[in-house]
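ok so heres the complex, two chains, lmk if somethin looks off
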Amino acid sequence: MDVQLKILRYNPEKDTQPYFQDFTVKNVSNDWRLLDVLQEIKWQQDGTLTYRYSCAHGICGSDGMKVNGKNRLACSLLLKDINTKKTIVVEPLPSLPIIKDLVVDMTSFFSKYQVVKPYLINNTPPPQNGERLQSNEDAEKLFESAKCILCACCTTSCPSTWTNENYLGPAAMLKAYRFVYDTRDDAADERLDILDTPDGIWRCHTIFNCIEACPKEINITWHLSQLKKRISSREM
Amino acid sequence: MRKVRLRKGSLEDTQNPADKNDPYTKRVPVMRSCYSADRTGHVMLQTLFENSLKNQVTFFSEYFATDLIVEDGICKGVVAMDIATSEITVFQAKAVLFATGGYGRVFRITSNAHAGTGDGMALVYRAGLPLEDMEFFQFHPTGLWKLGILVSEAARGEGGILKNKDGERFMERYAPTVKDLAPRDMVSRAIITEIREGRGVKGSDGTDYVYLDLTHLGKEVIDEKLPEITGFARTYLGVEPTTDPIPIQPTAHYAMGGIPTNVNCEVLKNENGEIVKGLYAAGECACVSVHGGNRLGTNSLLDLVVFGRRGGKAIADFLKEAKHHEISESAADRSREIISSIMDNQGTEKISNLRTELQNNMMELCGIFRNEEDLRKMIDILEDLRRRAKNVFLQDKGKVFNTELIGALELHNLLDSAEATVYSAYARLESRGAHTREDFPIRDDSNWMKHTFAYLRENDRPELRYKPVVITNYQPMERKY
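and the predicted structre for the whole thing:
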């Protein structure tokens, strides 16, 4: 079968405004990934088409983009899961500055990630054998939040992010969860203070876009709700 | 609940399937594989990134290294291009450590990322330094059909069974005692043999596969122990592993060879063990060589933890005395020339065509089974590809995020990595580990207990030199399963 695409193009060296360009890719099959279609365009039709990609199976998190209005990883989206009778609309992740075509500037995304202190903070030296112990049950509590691949699909799908560029966003706060609930970490209060600010967790209005966008199917809103409860009970 | 930790709270060890077959350890099972469900590597990556941020490491993200500055046996820095602007930057450095990964992308089917194009190895090779044991490339038996995405050992460790098109558990014929848990090289050869003898399943892409059957394990084991990898089968092939077998074929997985180093990650400048001052390598791009001719499952992560740490410590010691070295004004000239020659080229060749030809031919002629005739053919093909690679045409003439230019640079790195691999494989007249010569099927310890060192020779075939294998506590013996 053939597929039609409309891809948002923008080259800062030439264009004043982004615009849509139409492409047709012939002889594709249902089990192609959207990334395969883009590769076919880039390497056979138009070498200027630009997007990030690397592992091609949903681990590196580099090929997040907006497909038919929803944030997806191009490598984890198969054509059989898209309505290919209609033109597929491909745009960069929303709300981040476009560098070129589908490549966005991730600087603000990663600086928000750093705000929540995304690392283990423990003020006591590690035990003699070097390993800080943790029960299987306690490790399990962190397991889902640690599936995050930092693709930014969730944060850039959130209407609260669109209206407030300073909002920490779901990915950064999910990372905060990962350490707030880690039995080996000493800085839960420090992180909760960071979340309990005007641009922090209260901007989450449980719109659930993040869950819908997450390619790793993490229940992000549930994790953020736990953090909200924890902050509220702390105030009590 | 997924088991990540033991009741006492330490990281859980497991017996790795490979160990049960090891003549040295089978009498005493060894617990050596710490893991986190089936995504140990991802968890390690997170911890490394988290701690880099904690310690305020400066990252130059999306820079592409184009040259290594080595003069008089001293490494003085690297030349790199900022992908966002195409600006060339010289990084003057007291010490440089390459952690640039493998080059699985020289093969058609690979588990490696698209970035696995041997960039670090090629830079070292072009700097006149050797690459060691490049003929040893591991094919993992269970890659998802067509895509090469890894279905890890965990699947067979938990009891997964390989079957041919007749539903026969064929590994019983190749390794009667350990069957599906035979080492990776043996299982990969068995699968290819099944396919060659007509017992594979013909896929819609024209390639053949066999089945990995997990259905008898039950949903609980599959969901608890193998969530990630069975998810890949669902997402990419639309196969439900609890009810249907997964189509698999061998996938290029890991380079045992690479940049020669000693145990402190210092890069060797020759087979006599002399080092390049200030240059280090760790991980898959390096060849210590702890994996010999055939890496065991999980040991790549072990390699990263051990040698990442050792390299870091060695550099910290080195920096106490080290100084910056004067770098000549012309250090970036070669990079600039190469890039402008690519950008200005009015040739007729397409990057993708050359890359595909390389990948298809490497898979067929220098893959799991090799022989003199095929390797000779591959040498001719490589020469042709090298000539044509000087004649590529880029459509993207811009400076901002020019990924077509990166593709062209990566093609050169792939060709260099492939060259060292093919010539090293051509010269090794025996079968050992992952290197299988159909025309020399026997391991020949009297002549070939030695490491290959391949040196680039301008306009000529690479020069191959050798270094004897050092035997310490364990006498090599024939593998029998």
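quick notes: The mean pLDDT of chain B is 93. thats all i got rn
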